[in-house]
Amino acid sequence: MTSAERSDFIRQQALKLGFDACGFAKAAPVRATDSAYFQQWLEQGHQGDMAYLQNHFDKRMDPTLLVDGCQSVVVVALNYYPPTPSRHVPKVARFAYGKDYHDFIREKLRNLLKTLRTEDPSVKGRAFCDSAPILERYWAQEAGLGWIGKNTLLIRPGAGSYFFLGMLLMNQPLVYDSPLPNRCGNCHRCREACPTGALTREGLRARNCLSYLTIEKKGAFSTEEIDLMKQGEWVFGCDQCQEACPWNRFSAAQPDPWFTPISVAFEWDRDNVAAMTDTVFAERFADTCLARTKREGMLRNVCAVGKKNAANP
Ligand code: SF4
Ligand code: SF4
To answer: What residues are annotated to the active site?
Structure first.
Protein backbone atom coordinates (compact mmCIF):
# COMPACT_ATOMS: atom_id res chain seq x y z
CA MET A 1 0.00 0.00 0.00
CA THR A 2 1.14 3.55 -0.60
CA SER A 3 0.92 6.08 2.22
CA ALA A 4 -2.13 7.64 0.57
CA GLU A 5 -3.91 4.29 0.15
CA ARG A 6 -3.10 3.33 3.74
CA SER A 7 -4.38 6.67 5.03
CA ASP A 8 -7.64 6.39 3.08
CA PHE A 9 -8.13 2.82 4.26
CA ILE A 10 -7.59 3.68 7.93
CA ARG A 11 -9.94 6.66 7.82
CA GLN A 12 -12.67 4.68 6.06
CA GLN A 13 -12.37 1.79 8.52
CA ALA A 14 -12.36 4.13 11.53
CA LEU A 15 -15.59 5.77 10.41
CA LYS A 16 -17.09 2.37 9.58
CA LEU A 17 -16.29 1.20 13.12
CA GLY A 18 -18.28 4.11 14.53
CA PHE A 19 -15.60 6.70 15.27
CA ASP A 20 -16.65 10.23 14.45
CA ALA A 21 -13.30 11.45 13.20
CA CYS A 22 -9.84 10.16 12.40
CA GLY A 23 -6.67 12.15 11.75
CA PHE A 24 -2.97 11.53 11.25
CA ALA A 25 0.15 13.22 12.59
CA LYS A 26 3.81 12.46 11.99
CA ALA A 27 5.36 10.93 15.10
CA ALA A 28 8.03 13.23 16.50
CA PRO A 29 9.04 14.86 19.76
CA VAL A 30 6.39 17.34 20.94
CA ARG A 31 7.21 21.01 20.42
CA ALA A 32 9.74 22.45 22.90
CA THR A 33 7.23 25.05 24.12
CA ASP A 34 4.65 22.36 24.98
CA SER A 35 7.28 20.20 26.63
CA ALA A 36 8.53 23.15 28.72
CA TYR A 37 4.97 24.09 29.70
CA PHE A 38 4.23 20.56 30.89
CA GLN A 39 7.51 20.40 32.83
CA GLN A 40 6.71 23.69 34.55
CA TRP A 41 3.12 22.55 35.25
CA LEU A 42 4.51 19.48 37.02
CA GLU A 43 7.07 21.50 38.94
CA GLN A 44 4.31 23.74 40.21
CA GLY A 45 2.54 20.63 41.52
CA HIS A 46 -0.69 21.11 39.53
CA GLN A 47 -0.92 17.35 39.04
CA GLY A 48 -1.83 16.87 42.72
CA ASP A 49 -2.37 13.17 43.41
CA MET A 50 -1.92 12.27 39.73
CA ALA A 51 1.70 11.30 40.38
CA TYR A 52 1.62 9.02 37.33
CA LEU A 53 1.88 12.16 35.19
CA GLN A 54 5.44 12.57 36.44
CA ASN A 55 6.41 9.14 35.16
CA HIS A 56 7.94 8.45 31.74
CA PHE A 57 8.44 12.12 30.92
CA ASP A 58 10.70 11.30 27.94
CA LYS A 59 8.18 8.91 26.41
CA ARG A 60 5.31 11.33 27.05
CA MET A 61 7.21 13.94 25.09
CA ASP A 62 8.13 11.64 22.23
CA PRO A 63 5.87 8.80 20.98
CA THR A 64 8.74 7.32 18.98
CA LEU A 65 10.18 6.21 22.34
CA LEU A 66 6.92 4.50 23.20
CA VAL A 67 6.63 2.14 20.24
CA ASP A 68 9.64 0.84 18.31
CA GLY A 69 9.83 2.22 14.79
CA CYS A 70 6.83 4.51 15.34
CA GLN A 71 6.33 6.83 12.37
CA SER A 72 2.70 7.85 12.63
CA VAL A 73 0.14 8.83 15.23
CA VAL A 74 -3.45 7.96 14.33
CA VAL A 75 -6.01 9.75 16.50
CA VAL A 76 -9.69 8.85 16.61
CA ALA A 77 -12.52 10.76 18.28
CA LEU A 78 -15.74 9.22 19.54
CA ASN A 79 -18.76 11.33 20.45
CA TYR A 80 -20.26 10.49 23.84
CA TYR A 81 -22.90 13.17 24.19
CA PRO A 82 -25.93 11.58 25.86
CA PRO A 83 -29.30 12.09 24.18
CA THR A 84 -30.91 13.27 27.43
CA PRO A 85 -28.59 14.99 29.87
CA SER A 86 -29.67 14.49 33.48
CA ARG A 87 -31.31 17.31 35.39
CA HIS A 88 -30.77 15.50 38.68
CA VAL A 89 -28.54 17.22 41.27
CA PRO A 90 -25.88 16.44 42.41
CA LYS A 91 -24.58 15.42 39.05
CA VAL A 92 -22.36 12.93 37.31
CA ALA A 93 -20.44 14.18 34.24
CA ARG A 94 -21.84 13.08 30.93
CA PHE A 95 -18.85 10.93 30.01
CA ALA A 96 -19.70 8.64 32.93
CA TYR A 97 -23.40 8.06 32.24
CA GLY A 98 -23.00 4.79 30.37
CA LYS A 99 -20.56 1.89 30.38
CA ASP A 100 -16.84 2.55 30.73
CA TYR A 101 -15.56 3.71 27.34
CA HIS A 102 -12.02 2.34 27.55
CA ASP A 103 -12.79 -1.21 26.46
CA PHE A 104 -15.17 0.05 23.77
CA ILE A 105 -12.50 2.21 22.15
CA ARG A 106 -9.59 -0.19 22.59
CA GLU A 107 -11.58 -3.03 21.05
CA LYS A 108 -12.46 -0.93 18.02
CA LEU A 109 -8.87 0.23 17.60
CA ARG A 110 -7.61 -3.35 17.79
CA ASN A 111 -10.14 -4.33 15.13
CA LEU A 112 -8.94 -1.45 13.01
CA LEU A 113 -5.34 -2.56 13.36
CA LYS A 114 -6.25 -6.18 12.59
CA THR A 115 -8.14 -5.24 9.44
CA LEU A 116 -5.32 -2.98 8.35
CA ARG A 117 -2.72 -5.69 8.90
CA THR A 118 -4.78 -8.08 6.76
CA GLU A 119 -4.53 -5.57 3.90
CA ASP A 120 -0.98 -4.46 4.67
CA PRO A 121 1.03 -6.97 6.74
CA SER A 122 3.95 -4.51 6.95
CA VAL A 123 1.98 -2.49 9.50
CA LYS A 124 2.80 -2.88 13.17
CA GLY A 125 1.29 -0.78 15.87
CA ARG A 126 -0.28 -0.46 19.27
CA ALA A 127 -3.66 0.90 20.35
CA PHE A 128 -4.12 3.13 23.38
CA CYS A 129 -6.97 4.74 25.23
CA ASP A 130 -5.76 6.48 28.41
CA SER A 131 -3.33 3.59 28.77
CA ALA A 132 0.02 5.13 27.83
CA PRO A 133 2.03 8.22 28.71
CA ILE A 134 1.04 10.29 25.70
CA LEU A 135 -0.41 13.80 25.26
CA GLU A 136 -3.70 12.80 23.63
CA ARG A 137 -5.09 16.29 23.09
CA TYR A 138 -1.80 17.58 21.71
CA TRP A 139 -1.77 14.78 19.14
CA ALA A 140 -5.45 15.20 18.34
CA GLN A 141 -4.68 18.83 17.55
CA GLU A 142 -1.63 17.89 15.50
CA ALA A 143 -3.77 15.38 13.60
CA GLY A 144 -6.18 18.13 12.58
CA LEU A 145 -9.16 16.99 14.66
CA GLY A 146 -9.65 20.35 16.34
CA TRP A 147 -7.94 22.77 18.67
CA ILE A 148 -7.26 22.81 22.40
CA GLY A 149 -9.65 25.39 23.82
CA LYS A 150 -9.23 27.63 26.84
CA ASN A 151 -11.03 24.90 28.78
CA THR A 152 -8.01 22.68 27.90
CA LEU A 153 -10.23 20.24 25.98
CA LEU A 154 -10.15 19.35 22.32
CA ILE A 155 -12.84 21.25 20.44
CA ARG A 156 -13.97 19.94 17.08
CA PRO A 157 -15.36 22.63 14.80
CA GLY A 158 -19.06 22.06 14.22
CA ALA A 159 -19.15 19.26 16.79
CA GLY A 160 -17.93 20.50 20.21
CA SER A 161 -15.93 18.82 22.93
CA TYR A 162 -17.94 15.82 24.15
CA PHE A 163 -15.52 13.32 22.63
CA PHE A 164 -13.32 10.49 23.83
CA LEU A 165 -9.95 10.10 22.14
CA GLY A 166 -8.10 6.97 21.15
CA MET A 167 -4.68 6.55 19.56
CA LEU A 168 -2.86 4.14 17.35
CA LEU A 169 0.92 4.40 17.09
CA MET A 170 2.21 2.68 13.96
CA ASN A 171 5.37 1.97 12.07
CA GLN A 172 4.34 3.06 8.56
CA PRO A 173 4.05 6.55 7.07
CA LEU A 174 0.70 8.18 6.29
CA VAL A 175 -0.44 11.34 4.59
CA TYR A 176 -0.52 13.75 7.51
CA ASP A 177 -3.23 16.24 8.41
CA SER A 178 -2.59 19.87 9.31
CA PRO A 179 -3.52 21.40 12.66
CA LEU A 180 -6.58 23.67 12.61
CA PRO A 181 -6.45 27.25 13.86
CA ASN A 182 -7.63 27.93 17.41
CA ARG A 183 -11.13 29.42 17.15
CA CYS A 184 -11.77 30.36 20.78
CA GLY A 185 -11.18 34.00 19.79
CA ASN A 186 -12.17 36.49 22.49
CA CYS A 187 -14.50 34.04 24.18
CA HIS A 188 -13.71 32.99 27.76
CA ARG A 189 -17.09 31.66 28.82
CA CYS A 190 -15.50 28.48 30.15
CA ARG A 191 -13.33 30.45 32.57
CA GLU A 192 -16.31 32.48 33.72
CA ALA A 193 -18.41 29.34 34.17
CA CYS A 194 -15.84 27.36 36.15
CA PRO A 195 -17.17 27.28 39.71
CA THR A 196 -13.76 26.93 41.35
CA GLY A 197 -11.53 29.24 39.28
CA ALA A 198 -9.55 26.24 38.09
CA LEU A 199 -9.25 27.65 34.55
CA THR A 200 -6.76 30.48 34.41
CA ARG A 201 -4.89 32.30 31.66
CA GLU A 202 -1.98 30.01 32.42
CA GLY A 203 -4.06 26.86 32.02
CA LEU A 204 -5.74 24.36 34.31
CA ARG A 205 -5.02 24.30 38.03
CA ALA A 206 -6.00 20.68 38.27
CA ARG A 207 -6.00 20.60 42.06
CA ASN A 208 -8.87 23.11 42.05
CA CYS A 209 -10.81 21.30 39.34
CA LEU A 210 -13.88 19.32 40.39
CA SER A 211 -13.07 16.59 37.87
CA TYR A 212 -9.77 16.08 39.66
CA LEU A 213 -11.23 16.34 43.16
CA THR A 214 -14.11 13.94 42.52
CA ILE A 215 -12.15 11.32 40.58
CA GLU A 216 -8.38 11.59 40.97
CA LYS A 217 -7.97 12.96 44.50
CA LYS A 218 -7.01 10.23 46.95
CA GLY A 219 -8.21 10.04 50.54
CA ALA A 220 -10.12 12.57 52.59
CA PHE A 221 -10.73 16.15 51.47
CA SER A 222 -9.12 19.05 53.28
CA THR A 223 -11.36 21.89 54.48
CA GLU A 224 -10.29 23.94 51.43
CA GLU A 225 -11.19 21.08 49.09
CA ILE A 226 -14.62 20.70 50.70
CA ASP A 227 -15.20 24.40 50.12
CA LEU A 228 -14.27 23.93 46.45
CA MET A 229 -16.66 20.97 46.18
CA LYS A 230 -19.46 23.17 47.51
CA GLN A 231 -18.97 25.62 44.63
CA GLY A 232 -20.38 23.01 42.26
CA GLU A 233 -23.04 20.34 42.14
CA TRP A 234 -20.86 17.49 40.95
CA VAL A 235 -20.06 14.14 42.55
CA PHE A 236 -18.18 12.55 39.64
CA GLY A 237 -16.47 14.75 37.05
CA CYS A 238 -17.77 18.18 36.05
CA ASP A 239 -19.17 19.48 32.75
CA GLN A 240 -19.57 23.14 33.61
CA CYS A 241 -16.84 24.48 31.32
CA GLN A 242 -18.17 22.32 28.48
CA GLU A 243 -21.77 23.37 29.05
CA ALA A 244 -20.67 26.99 28.74
CA CYS A 245 -18.78 26.47 25.49
CA PRO A 246 -20.65 27.82 22.47
CA TRP A 247 -19.18 25.11 20.26
CA ASN A 248 -21.16 22.52 22.19
CA ARG A 249 -24.41 23.82 20.72
CA PHE A 250 -23.42 21.50 17.88
CA SER A 251 -23.32 18.40 20.10
CA ALA A 252 -25.24 15.49 18.63
CA ALA A 253 -26.54 12.50 20.57
CA GLN A 254 -24.49 9.29 20.67
CA PRO A 255 -27.03 6.54 20.02
CA ASP A 256 -24.86 3.46 20.70
CA PRO A 257 -26.46 1.34 23.47
CA TRP A 258 -23.02 1.04 25.13
CA PHE A 259 -23.57 4.60 26.33
CA THR A 260 -27.14 4.15 27.54
CA PRO A 261 -27.21 5.92 30.91
CA ILE A 262 -26.69 3.76 33.99
CA SER A 263 -25.19 6.07 36.60
CA VAL A 264 -27.76 8.85 36.26
CA ALA A 265 -30.56 6.48 37.15
CA PHE A 266 -29.28 6.64 40.73
CA GLU A 267 -29.95 9.53 43.12
CA TRP A 268 -26.56 10.62 44.36
CA ASP A 269 -27.24 11.70 47.89
CA ARG A 270 -25.56 10.80 51.12
CA ASP A 271 -28.35 8.54 52.39
CA ASN A 272 -28.48 6.47 49.21
CA VAL A 273 -24.73 5.94 48.96
CA ALA A 274 -24.35 5.34 52.71
CA ALA A 275 -27.06 2.69 52.54
CA MET A 276 -25.14 0.66 49.96
CA THR A 277 -22.47 -1.84 50.85
CA ASP A 278 -19.12 -1.72 49.04
CA THR A 279 -20.09 -4.93 47.26
CA VAL A 280 -23.45 -3.61 46.07
CA PHE A 281 -21.79 -0.43 44.77
CA ALA A 282 -19.07 -2.42 43.03
CA GLU A 283 -21.61 -4.74 41.38
CA ARG A 284 -24.03 -2.02 40.39
CA PHE A 285 -21.41 0.21 38.76
CA ALA A 286 -18.90 -2.47 37.74
CA ASP A 287 -19.11 -1.64 34.04
CA THR A 288 -18.99 2.12 34.47
CA CYS A 289 -16.26 4.68 35.09
CA LEU A 290 -17.73 5.20 38.55
CA ALA A 291 -16.15 1.94 39.70
CA ARG A 292 -12.95 3.95 39.92
CA THR A 293 -13.89 5.93 43.02
CA LYS A 294 -15.43 2.90 44.69
CA ARG A 295 -18.24 3.50 47.19
CA GLU A 296 -15.83 5.08 49.65
CA GLY A 297 -14.82 7.83 47.23
CA MET A 298 -18.38 8.46 46.14
CA LEU A 299 -19.52 8.74 49.74
CA ARG A 300 -16.76 11.30 50.35
CA ASN A 301 -17.95 13.25 47.31
CA VAL A 302 -21.67 13.26 48.12
CA CYS A 303 -20.91 14.26 51.71
CA ALA A 304 -18.70 17.15 50.58
CA VAL A 305 -21.31 18.47 48.16
CA GLY A 306 -24.10 18.00 50.67
CA LYS A 307 -22.93 19.88 53.74
CA LYS A 308 -20.69 22.91 54.13
CA ASN A 309 -17.51 22.03 55.97
CA ALA A 310 -18.91 18.63 56.82
CA ALA A 311 -16.42 16.17 58.24
CA ASN A 312 -15.31 13.52 55.82
CA PRO A 313 -17.01 10.16 56.25
S1 SF4 B 1 -14.29 20.57 34.87
FE2 SF4 B 1 -15.46 22.00 36.20
S3 SF4 B 1 -14.06 22.58 37.84
FE4 SF4 B 1 -12.81 21.65 36.20
S5 SF4 B 1 -12.16 23.35 34.93
FE6 SF4 B 1 -14.07 22.65 34.04
S7 SF4 B 1 -15.68 23.87 35.03
FE8 SF4 B 1 -13.81 24.10 36.24
S1 SF4 C 1 -15.98 28.47 26.10
FE2 SF4 C 1 -15.06 29.85 24.60
S3 SF4 C 1 -12.95 30.08 25.28
FE4 SF4 C 1 -13.76 28.31 26.34
S5 SF4 C 1 -13.17 26.59 25.05
FE6 SF4 C 1 -15.23 27.20 24.40
S7 SF4 C 1 -14.87 28.67 22.72
FE8 SF4 C 1 -12.94 28.42 23.81
So the answer is: 130
